[in-house]
Amino acid sequence: MRNVFILLLFVLAIWTGIEVMNNGMGGAFGGLFVELGLAAPDQGPEGTPMGRAAHRFEEAYDRSEQRVDDQLE
User: Fold this and answer.
1) How much is the average pLDDT of 60-70?
2) Nearest one of 6, 38, 42 to 23, comparing CA atoms
3) pTM of structure
4) Burial zone of 27 (CB within 10 Å; 0-12 exposed, 13-18 middle, 19+ buried)
């Protein structure tokens, strides 16, 4: 019985970690951590790791595009 409880706790910890990684602390489980006062609300999609990566990629792409435009002028 103890092994089943430990396994269930381990699965719950992994699920929580994946949810936080994908949605950030403010968006995990539909904002449950915000309601409990454990996290601040996210500021849009940039609050998640994938959102920050996408935002940085767009900024880098815009900078490189601007450099090409400057060289062509």
Assistant:
1) 93
2) 42
3) 0.54
4) buried
